[in-house]
Structures are given as C-alpha cells and as structure tokens.
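quick one, 145 residues, struct below
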Amino acid sequence: MSLFGAISVSASGMEAQRIRAELITENLANADTTRTPQGGPYRRKDAVFTASPIEGSFAQTLAGFTAGAQQGVAVSQITVDDGEPERRYLPGHPDADPLGYVAFPKISPAEEMVNLMGASRGYEANVAAISSAKDMIARSIDLFR
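---
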C-alpha cells in the first residue's frame, strides 16, 4: 500500500466516524423528544460500518486486481431502534395517553457520551495516521534533496 493509499483509508475512516458522531449528537439532542413528525417519540439511530474499496485512478484499480484491493470504511446503513419506548407516568403532559403515560425515547445519555468518546477517539486515530503518512512523505522528499 502506498502512503497516499494509507491517507485515503484514514480519510474514509474519518468520514465514517464523523457520521457516527453526528448521529450520536442527534440522539443526545432528542433524548426527551416525545413527538416527532412521524408520530410517537424519537427513535435512537446508529451507524453500521462496512468495508469499502478505496476508489482511485485506473492504474490503482488495475493494481488492486493483482495485489488485493485497498479497503476503507463506509457507513452502509443507519439503523433506527424499533424497540418499545420508555413509558413514564406524567398525567399533565400534552402527549400523555388516557392512562397518563408518556412514551419517551429509550436513550441513555451516559451510554451515548461513551459512544461519542469512542467516535472521537476513532477520528483522532485516523488523524494521527494521516499525520504520520504526511510526515513520511515529507521525509522522503527531504532525502531526495
């Protein structure tokens, strides 16, 4: 794998972690949303990662057929939690059912914060890998002077 290929792989990982972080922050922002345009409480969302070939020039594609294609990461789908919502007894709430229960999203802020830290660390790891590849390219150029 070339250094530029390593940068492409890390860039795809950064993009996937960015999408994951956006979904986590959306979950945190809507942790108490009891009414959505679709009806009912907000549903927790999560990203599903999958291996994805890195697109490049024709020469890189041809080399991929002989030496094994480079794999990056991509978000293959966004899942929505379809489990039962958490029900709380709040008889004065405008979204309460006839028995006085309100359906709230099943979102744990502590769990979402841990997930956000994981996404942040994954993003930082890819930034460090890109920085290392950039440094190696710069040192290689210095050797040719």
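The radius of gyration is 22 Å.
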